[in-house]
Specification:
UDP-galactose 4-epimerase, domain 1, 307 residues, 9 helices, 36% helix
């Protein structure tokens, strides 16, 4: 039986990966999380081990032991975090620590979460070969993680290091992210409360929204990647916020019109769209969920979930 370690496994994406590894791959899974933003409720029903420790510590190395691969999801995920040292330490130094663990324990595959934030306001579709132009320290930290991964893979050719640049992810188990939860979830909550959904004028900003079920599929496919690489994970088909509200209204059988207000931010991405050619070629990644279908499925789950 294979064994995997999921760092940040009590968080949104990490917990979805942990359950998929247990269920689909019939694997043993250990989760590492310091519970600074993760929540134990994301792991209710989980059958593996949980290591409560910080990614910057080395104390967890021995407890995790030898595994077949690491899915590294642990990070400071608040993109508005202004403490640059905190962000860089958790995201970059934490990643280095994971790589040191892998080297020390003979782990040959590390799959880690990068981000579309590395692209900033780059032209679309965004391709992995573009020079990173991050607009905040979160995006910068992810770009440096990609640099660290590339250098590490070049020095350790017997290991496979796969970086996955997540675009705008939504789906089950994001409930405890607070203000960092997806706009799909936030707009759902407004509609459920009978309020008009509030979005920036005039709802035409576009995002490459990706359902977490597709994202998990990309992570599991990375177990079979033949070489170290960095790939986008998205749908390649951006939708705007008006379309999100339309899909939510349809799924909830409501009919609440958007309330538009001025965008207060000086920096704002008006469009994200992934080029998926590299993910298709290297990961055999084929997204299955359209925005409308993903939202419909998500709403069904939300309607049955106690949060």
């Amino acid at each position: 039986m294979k064994k995997y370690l999921v760092t940040g496994g009590a968080g949104f994406i990490g917990s979805n990966i942990a359950f998929a590894l247990e269920g689909e791959r019939k694997a043993r899974v250990a989760v590492l999380d310091n519970f600074s933003s993760g929540n134990y409720k994301n792991l209710l029903g989980f059958g593996g081990d949980v290591i409560a420790d910080d990614i910057l510590s080395r104390a967890w190395f021995a407890r995790a032991g030898k595994v077949d691969a690491v899915f590294h999801q642990a990070a400071v995920v608040d993109t508005t975090e202004a403490d640059q040292r905190k962000m860089m330490a958790a995201n970059v130094d934490g990643f280095r620590n994971v790589l040191e663990y892998a080297l020390e324990y003979g782990v040959k595959r590390v799959i880690y979460a990068s981000s579309a934030a590395v692209y900033g306001n780059s032209p679309c579709p965004m391709h992995e070969d573009q020079t990173p132009t991050p607009e905040n320290v979160y995006g910068f930290s992810k770009a440096i993680m990609d640099n660290v991964a590339r250098e590490f893979a070049a020095e350790h050719k017997d290991m496979t290091i796969v970086g996955l640049r997540y675009f705008n992810v939504y789906g089950p188990r994001e409930y405890y992210k607070g203000k960092m939860a997806s706009m799909v979830f936030q707009l759902y909550n407004q509609l459920k409360a009978g309020k008009r959904p509030r979005i920036f004028k005039f709802g035409e900003q576009m995002r490459d929204f990706v359902y977490v079920k597709d994202l998990v599929r990309g992570n599991l496919n990375a177990l079979d990647a033949k070489k170290s690489c960095v790939c986008n994970l998205a749908t390649g088909k951006p939708g705007n916020f008006n379309e999100v509200i339309e899909a939510l209204n349809k799924a909830l059988k409501t009919d609440l019109a958007p309330e538009y207000f001025d965008n207060p931010y000086g920096f704002y991405q008006n469009k994200t769209q992934a080029d998926l050619r590299q993910a298709k070629a290297l990961l055999n990644y084929r997204p299955e969920w359209s925005l409308a279908d993903g939202i419909a499925d998500y709403v069904k789950i939300l309607e049955k979930t106690r949060i």
